[in-house]
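Second attempt. The first submission of H repeat-associated protein N-terminal domain-containing protein had a stray character pasted in from the spreadsheet, which I only caught after the job came back as garbage. Lesson logged: always re-copy from the clean sequence file. Corrected sequence (462 aa) follows.
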Amino acid sequence: MKTTKTNPDRHLKRSSLSGNSLQIKIIETKKDVARFTKLAKQFHYMGEGCPAGDTLRMVVVADGEWIALLLWGSACYRLKHRDEWIGWTDQQRAARQKLVVQNRRFVLLTEPGEHPNLASRILGKVVRELPAFWLERFGYEPLLAETFSDIEAREGTCYKASGWTALGKTKGYSRHAADFYVPNDRPKKLWVRELRKNATELLRSIHLPDEFKKGAASDADGVMPIKARQIESLHEALCKVPDPRAKNCVYHIGAILSIVAMGVFSGHKDLKAIMRFAERMTLPQRKKLALPGFEKGSRYKKIPSYTAVYNLLTQLDLDAFSQVLSEWLAQHRGTLPVALAMDGKFIRDTVGLVTLAEHDTNSPVAMIDASQKEGEGERCELKASQKMLRRHDDLTNTVITADALDCQKETARIIVDRGGEYCIQVKDNQKTIRQEAELSAKELSPLLARPKKRMGESTDAR
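This time the job returned cleanly.
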């Protein structure tokens, strides 16, 4: 937050604000945006900055005068203190990032001391009204707000007074490009504020309420499970897939198929999402794929177009592609995400073991004793399975498979809370869960969009 000493843009008449309520105005017209930008540059040492993602410019008005500017935008992709405080997994953070918004600028246009407690009053009013403004503009309601205060200039008292929570200091780095940060020698204090009760519980919950699902469709990178050296190895392997295209293609087959594979590995489910992932690939990742040329006016390697990728995939020998990819996965077994099967074995339903074992080798990685297959006791298979899972602090990049006995909310919650994923069988007698699963599957789009039917073409044409 920045307070001005003088403001030539204000009327000469000084307002006491007594008897007048503060009003929040959303900036929309070009004229107002230009004025907002000019004032931000004039009275904040960092100017307006570069708005990113969904952006909202606010001014606080009293007696017809602009007395404060606030700029809201997308949150930081990763913040250690914030992410630990929320308690969400990497996968949840990647998907739900848009539900956290950042107060990028807060500028008072009044003279210091002119109106005591004005900053905290403004912040209190703004955070109460922000969700409704955001919902009206972008179609979803945010759950959490974050901001930073410069510890060299301000203590952040106004944030504390208006209910924000201080989570610690940053390391003093600024994002210079998509792939690296540079030191700025100005560590800042991180503040957060829940925009509704139990916001953090919602952000880390397994299932979000319907009203927040639109904001949980972030285009964030996802969680890349392979390292730089594995990207290079993947590229080398996929170069061996037969190329059905002409010899003079700009992008070689290994680079395109590597981008597709990396996008799928990061959790993207259709080609449009994969291409958005490709646009965010870092410079080192692009270099590993030997992409040709550079983007105009940039040091970034160019990526293939959607059309180039689509055309290759529609002509590709999928059997050859899957064979090469399977061989690569086999070579890197042990360094890639793990799939573990959870199951119990019993002797006459009285003495048994519940085991977590690797899918490929059947080698057990964890065991626990259980007294019965089913029942309500603490040593039945279900309770024993949950106890065994709780012993694992980190299930990142791990998929747990299990039969219908373990199809319970608590089991799923334990796995997700530890960063893992699950694939659990659902039977017909679990009607509600089965219906929800079927509806979710219907919403999934195919990797490649179906080609449009040509004029006069039969519906059963091959």
